[in-house]
Each structure stands twice: as C-alpha cells, then as structure tokens.
Amino acid sequence: MELRRPHILYILICLWLLVSPSNVSSVWAKDFVVVIDAGHGGHDPGAIGKISKEKNINLKVALKLGNLIKQNCNDVKVVYTRKKDVYLTLQERANIANKVQGDLFISIHTNSLDKKSPNRRKVAGASTWTLGLHRSKENLEVAKRENSVIYLENDFSTRYEGFDPNSTESYIIFEFMQYKHMEQSINFASDIQREFVSTAGRVDRGVRQAGFWVLAKTSMPAVLVELDFICNPTQERFLNSESGQEKMAKSIYNAFVKYKSDYDRKQNAGKRVEESPSSSAVVSPDKKTQTSDSNVKISEQAEKSGVTYYKVQFMALPRKLPANSKEFKGLSPVEYYKDGGMYKYTYGKSTDRDEIQKQYKKVKSLFRDAFIIKFRDGKRVY
Asked: Do 311 and 351 meet the contact criterion of CB atoms below 8 Å apart?
C-alpha cells in the first residue's frame, strides 16, 4: 500500500505524541493570561499634575510590569489593553480582557484630589480597589472620577445601559456584581498593598471597594490600583522617576507571583487552595447549629475525632446570607466559615475524595469557580 505524504505526516505526529508526553502537556496546556490595563490614554489624560499626566505614568508602569512577567514567568501570557498613547473606552478594555479569556485583570491608575481640596499637595499613599459598593464618600468620589471618562463618548448613555457616573443611585447595581471573584480579588489586592509598603515604600491607604465599570464588566478576578497622588509634587516626582516606576511595577509583580503560585496550587490536587485555619457554621434550614458572632463549629464529632474531611467552597462574601438565599442557586444544605472578615460558603462534606469529587461536579455546574477544600478538627488545613 502506498502511503501518501499527509498519511506519513499524521503517523509521525502520532508517534511524537506517544513518546513525548511532556510535549503533549505543553502543546495543549492553556497559558495563564494576565491582562494589564493602563488607565486613560489618547485624548483622555486622566489626572493632571504639575509636570505630568496620569495616562503616561500608568502606561510606563504597565509596560514595566508586563516586561517583568514576560522575563520571569514562561507559562504566563501578557495582554495589554494598550501599549501606546491611544484612547480606549471602558467597555473596550473589558472586551479585550474577556475576548482573550483572561485569568486576571490589573488596571493601573494614578490618584488625585479635587483642586479645591486643602490636602491636595500633602496627601500621599497607594491603594488597591476591588469591585463593590462604596462604603464612604471618598470611595465614591474615586469611582466617579475613574468612571467619568465615559462622558467622552457620544452614546455613553446607551452603551453603558443608562449608567451615570455622577449619580449615586447608579452605583447600587455594583452591590449585586461583586460575588463571583471577590475572594481572589481581595486576596490579590491585599498582597499588592503589602508590596507597595515593603517594596515601594508607599503609605498604605488600604484595600478598598467601589463601583468601577471596567472591573464590573471583566469576567475574571480584577483589581484597580491607584499608584499614588499626582497632585502631591513629591509623589509626582517619584512616579515620574525611573526608580519610582520600577518600584511600583516590582510591587505589583511580586504580588502577582504569589497570586500565580496560589492559583497553580488550586489547579492541582483537586482544586485546593490552602488558607489559614478557620471555623465553620451551618446556614442550612435543615440543620440547627449553635452560632455566635465569632466562631461557630460545624461537627462536634468530626472535630473531636480528628477525622479529615473535604468540602466544596463556591462563594465568598463580606456579609452573612440567609439560609434560603437565592444566591445559593438551590444548593442545600449550605455551610459557611469565617476567614479574614469574609463569609466563605461551602456545600457537601465527605471523608471520601471520590465522593467529594461528585459533589464538586454538581457545584461546579452552578458556580464555575468552585473548588475543594480540606478540614481537620473543624479547621481548614493546608
């Protein structure tokens, strides 16, 4: 039988795949995709300082961050929303991130205060923001400023579904958009803040929440960083210096490396993400459990016996939900444990890994980011 060239090529490819299993994984494995968004650009300068414009600082730090990741993380694909001085709408930025199926979104901005503020030339510090409902007037003002770029678009009312950046009522919608990736976003934001202090020597203005449109429309964990205040002459000089930009980029990069390491551990060994030990509480209407404001135990027998068991975590929120909440999508019984000020909700419980895998598949069909966690003596273990 005569073999045609396509047949020979097919056979050679099959043989190569058989003898090179490592090559198979590299061919089919999906790279981790980080989307880096330099805020503002083009005819949108962002905040304006004495010697510079926000858009340029954002871009320089974004490119430095991307280069650090490219040079040191071979399994990460870096995608920029912009690499030069061009204008992009907030929706276009979110569309880029969603189109490439990003695993993490980092939006880089520079802070400022209103010209009438008496502290304008003295205020300093870096902050990292996640999506949520603002809890203070200051947070709302930051969100208004960053969202106000939509006024540069002729059809902003239609494109942004009637959202008005200057209307306080418009921000209520973000109360219901924050659940899916809140835990990952807050954890990453916390690591960024620690690095801003230790690596870049910045004043810590903390992790904050507000309604940023660009974060709301990205279907992945997302943060928005405010590097420092361009209205403060000292901080503006720092942000325009090569050294300052490198320190800010290195801070975000260090936090990213930790995030990626945690992400990899989660992807391996049954989607486990290891965190600090915490206590748990049942919120199912089918079970009566003694509760308190601090810690609530889930299974007295399991805790005393030292048995290791598994659960499926599917949601993390800053507040406690009622047992019959629609947010659980019909899952029952649901339990929670408190960790770092967050209520982390779980479903299922088994000492058998095969059994918990079955329950994991059920939850995964409802909550894409669900993962398996491990408990011993009533506490989450590494």
From this structure: no
